[in-house]
Amino acid sequence: MPGQHLMQPISFRMESMEVQDEIDIIMPHLVDFLCQDIDWLIDKAQALVPEEDLNQHIPITNDDKDKISAILQMLQKCHPKAWKRLIDTICMECALPMDLEVPLVSLTGEGSSELKWNSCWSNNENRQRRLHEYAERYKQQIKESLLENYRFKDVRDPGGLCNPMFVEPLIKGAKMPKDKHRNEGVREKTLVTEDIYDTVGTDNLFRRTSLVKTHVILLMGMPGTGKTMLTRRICYDWAGGKFNQIALTFLFEFRQLNLIKRHLTLRELLFDLFLMPALFSDEVFDYIIKNPMKILIIFDGLDEFLGHFTDNTPTANYDFSQRTSISQLFTNILLGTLLQGCTVIVTCRPKMVNSFPLYFVDNVAEVLGFDKKRVELYIDDFFYLNPLKDKVLSYVRDNNKLMHMCFVPALCHMICVCLEHLLNTSSAKSKLPQTMTQFYLKMLIIFIQKRKTQFTEETTIINEFRSLILRLSSVALYGLDNNTSVFYNEQISEDLHSFAVNHGLLSVFQVKKFDSCTDVGYSFVHLSSQEFFAALFLLVSETITERELQKKFSLKSKWASKQNSTGELMDNLHIFLSGLSSKDCQTFLYNLSGQKNMILRKQDTIIESLKRLADTQLTGPKLIELCHCTYETQNENLARHFGKFTAMKYELKNFRISPVDMTSLMFVVKHGSCLVSLDFAGCPMELECLDVLGTSNDIQALSFRHQKYGDSFAEALSPVISGMVNLKKIRVTAGHLTTDGISALSQSFLLCSALQEINLQNNHLKVEDMILLTELFLKMEELRVLDLSHNDMNVMGILKLLKSAVSSPSITSIQIIGDTAKIIFSSNDIEVISSPIVKKAREESTDIKVKRLSLENCSLTSEEIPQLAEILTGPQFSCVNLSGNPFGDLGFKKLIDSLPNMHISEKLELNRTMLSEEGIAYLLYSTVTCLNIKLVSASGLDQMAEILFFDRNDDCEREIR
């Protein structure tokens, strides 16, 4: 028996060592995962061991990993049962990555030792295992469906060349309020574009801030930037094995949800309108509601939603069998009333953001489309193994206008198609479209031409397909008028189906209905395509009068009001109507309509509408929209008219500026026949926008205010402004400029021969940077004002800067106010009434310029007086203001004793300098001997004195009055 007793601990120790090895391996990964929500872990752990004070075991550190490790180690060593229950809870409630979930489940479910826990699963655990198995079957079913529906082109797979390509668009994140509690203060917060920060990848979007709360991701972006393609790629990547923390993925398009008129349950939404499980649907739904942390639901196209978002108070203990509207289901999922803890992705256009309550959103990202790198990558893939690739790349690189149009992915694809066709058939340079509308027109002809066995002239194509093009355009307008982008067989006749689908103008898809039934649906390949065809119908149809056309034409705001948050599909209709009014489109329109006079009248109607809009006061976003319209017309006379009525000043505030926006703006500026001022306040922009800006010599003032304008922005701006021969004022404020940025800008300032005013306030400039900038006055004859307010400054820095500034003969005014951080230098030829000493000095040197100096509230004390006095000795001053500095009597006496060595011709101000009555008396006694000062104003603790000096005779005797 003693031997038997001896063997048991040995076996136990060996098994314990094996399990501990497994725990040691997965522990770092578990700690990393739990870092997403340490508060959740602390709450769970404390509930499991209420007798313990966890604060006694948590180290004092800012590192959450150390805190989590301490909690887990304490539970494992001191409370093994609580440790097991915690791991059970983590497995049940959290969306664990597969490589972490599998070993944790094995630890909770296998082994015979006390550490490895009981291998006999309870009935509940067995049920969970079965639910997991059924969910895995459904997961495979969803994956197969997604891989079938959303195939993407792989250049290594010749069989997949017809599939769409994917280049991940540029995505910028946005900071959001961390507090998701539902209160009025947070509810009214909206996304501010100044908060846009660095580029993020799709992986980063899924980083949760809570392990149990619903994780809501809002993807916003302008039309054509790739939002829908991105969501489909996320589904495709998940089906291919990525994002393995997600067990089940559901994708819904609002354009299809709009078709559902009756109320439905959550189960009907997930199964009937997405994919019905082949087996065990009850068990799969049970798994979904018990494991919401592992569910991803995507809602694409909120801007197309015809329902209203309702943020009613969530209902506790929600009845899953309850039927409700699509709007309410959407709301309940977002608010966590349904499937609390799931991940939700919503896509929309920026105009919807302010009408969409953001207090429950965890992550906002802006999909911006492409940049130069992504454009080249897309072209490289599009022309894979095509001998035209290098020629196309070179052509796009050399054509900035074309490159910037390619920043819109949907347009980039069309440009690639057009270039491929044009370079294969003729010279692209002579026929390449210049605007978005012209590209759409060319796309229509090329898509039809590609189905032809031999080259066919444009006129022949239009004559052959005129009736079908007009009918397709009529369908497009019907859809816009009725807020729908989905059409059925009743609206798409058989011959129209054959024409539009075969030529890639319409896409066909299954429309989900209840009871797993489907119908055939049609949509234009992109919503912008529908708007283009609708605009085409408005121009060429005899049934549309000029009056009706005028009613359809209006500028669209970038923001939807909270009172009008339902989807409206017409974002680009006014752009296409403007483009179709171009003379370059006339031949196409004549051939399609057969009515030349009607086309001319309608084009004139659009131009006149644009002129009237130019005569009104427009906000920044609508100003840019009008620039887009004007650019699309390519009408220089209209641009000249527009420029005349903008009062030469363009104020753009709080919305993102794209390179395409800047191209349109510069078109108007270039043809406006006057010098203009551009003010970008709170407008994030990519550096490519600055390249466009540099193409104009008609800018007299530039202003940039944004917290993310830093050194890289300054380095990109520098070569741009160096060529602006008429630039008089420049402001780069409220940013993050440092030494590198200032060094680049300083070199460019020297090349701006007309520059008179530089404002770099509210950045991160050091004293050395500011000294470098003050030296510009010696090298720039026209420079008059340098504003360096609200930068890094202390007392010693003030003295260093002052020493540099007073030594510059060109600087005639120095204003430094400490409490308001105001620092302004200026150069003006000011005539002053000089004292005899200054008059005499001027007779000896005509180059001396009298300066004005203000050093108010700069915290100068008696210790700085010797250095200050040394700096002020030598230069000629008209007025010196040292008010608000705590000199006290000691510092005051030091300063007064130094006055005979200073040259102050007008006034000395020493108010609020902590003088006593004795100090005031000393002032009266001493300043009589200062022959050059005419007025001294001083005040102390309770005393105030103002001394005015008069010369009694020519020997410079003085008297006080």
Strand content: 5-15%
Radius of gyration: 36 Å
Helix content: 40-55%
CATH topology name of one domain: Rossmann fold
The average pLDDT is 85
The chain-level structural class is: alpha/beta
Corresponding CATH architecture of one domain: 3-Layer(aba) Sandwich
CATH class of one domain equals Alpha Beta
Strands in their spatial order, largest beta sheet: 10-11-12-13-14-15-17-16-18-19-20-21-22-23
Global outline? flat
Low-confidence stretches: 1-14, 110-121, 177-197, 829-847
- N- to C-terminal distance: 119 Å
- Number of helical elements: 39
Secondary structure tally: strands: 23
The major sheet is characterized as: 14 strands, mixed
CATH superfamily of one domain: P-loop containing nucleotide triphosphate hydrolases
Structure report:
By secondary structure, this protein is of the alpha/beta class. The protein has 39 helices and 23 strands. α3 crosses α4, α14 (372-382) runs antiparallel to α15 (389-398) and α20 crosses α25. The longest helix has 33 residues, at 2-34. Helices cover 46% and strands 13% of the residues. Among the domains are: 2-120, no CATH class; 135-150 and 168-369, P-loop containing nucleotide triphosphate hydrolases (Rossmann fold, 3-Layer(aba) Sandwich); 435-586, no CATH class; 830-961, Alpha-Beta Horseshoe (Leucine-rich repeat, LRR (right-handed beta-alpha superhelix)), CATH 3.80.10.10. β13, α32 (739-749) and β14 form a beta-alpha-beta unit. Residues 1-14, 110-121, 177-197 and 829-847 have low confidence and may be disordered. Strands 10-11-12-13-14-15-17-16-18-19-20-21-22-23 form a 14-stranded mixed beta sheet. A seven-stranded mixed beta sheet has the order 2-1-7-3-6-5-4. The chain has a two-stranded antiparallel sheet with strand order 8-9. It is flat. Pfam families: Atypical_Card, NACHT, NLRC4_HD2. InterPro entries: LRR_dom_sf, NACHT_NTPase, NLRC5_atypical_Card, NLRP_HD2, P-loop_NTPase. Keywords: ATP-binding, Leucine-rich repeat, Nucleotide-binding, Repeat. This is NACHT domain-containing protein. GO terms for molecular function: ATP binding.
